[in-house]
Design a protein that fits this description.
The complex is a heterodimer of chains A (115) and B (111). Chain A is mostly beta strands. Chain A is 0% helix and 50% strand. Classes of the chains: A mainly beta (115), B mainly beta (111).
């Protein structure tokens, strides 16, 4: 049973560049959430996608955008990268209509370093 | 505002018991989660509490008091592999779509 898969695992980008991160949810899950986790901090909610639409958004600028495809996979795009965007980006999948009592299933994350 | 507080770091001895506390102030409450996260890895689900009381799962137990905005995670018979960060997260009532996370408690197990 495949869990949540994310790619790439690690990425180094230069300030001002754009990046796309990818996520395939756990089998049977149709909702994808993206989180940013800075070193030593808890994850911060970026946004959630369900039925190919952004259902809710956290306190992140418009430079952060996303997309969900018909097969439930998702992309996170970040434009005009800043040094402060360096973090672990986590994709979490869940079943529809929000969280059940098993919470999310997380992918292993993409470690983004902006130099 | 919404706030979740946990101790930054704790140290315990192999074979012992440790309790990790979490206090929260959120706009409503729709459940509290505990996750374990090893360094460089994804968080993994440990427990979920929505009603007051103690939930036991093997060596791990989680307690909730909604009136006090308080939870704890109890780890028994500690093993070296329990060295990890433990994250407390709350689902606010006004949002069923996201979790509000604490910064995590780094637990160090010593032989």
């Amino acid at each position: 049973d495949a869990g949540v898969t994310q790619s790439p695992t690690h990425l180094i980008k230069t300030r001002g560049q754009q990046v796309t991160l990818r996520c395939s949810p756990k089998s049977g899950h149709d909702t994808v959430s993206w989180y940013q986790q800075a070193l030593g901090q808890g994850p911060q909610f970026i946004f959630q996608y369900y039925e190919e639409e952004e259902r809710q958004r956290g306190n992140f600028p418009d430079r952060f955008s996303g997309h969900q495809f018909p097969n439930y996979s998702s992309e996170l795009n970040v434009n005009a990268l800043l040094l402060g965007d360096s973090a672990l980006y986590l994709c979490a999948s869940s079943e529809r209509a929000g969280l059940n009592n098993y919470g999310y299933t997380f992918g292993s994350g993409t470690r983004l370093t902006v130099v | 505002g919404q706030n979740i507080d946990q101790p930054t770091e704790m140290t315990a001895t192999e074979g012992a018991i440790v309790q990790i506390n979490c206090t929260y102030q959120t706009s409503g409450f729709n459940g509290l989660f505990w996750y374990q996260q090893h360094a460089g890895e994804a968080p993994t689900f440990l427990s979920y509490n929505v009603l007051d009381g103690l939930e036991e799962k093997g060596r791990f137990s989680s307690f909730l008091s909604r009136s006090k905005g308080y939870s704890y995670l109890l780890l028994k018979e500690l093993q070296m592999k329990d060295s990890a960060s433990y994250l407390c997260a709350v689902a606010p009532r006004d949002s069923n779509y996201q979790l509000i996370w604490g910064a995590g408690t780094k637990l160090i197990i010593k032989p």
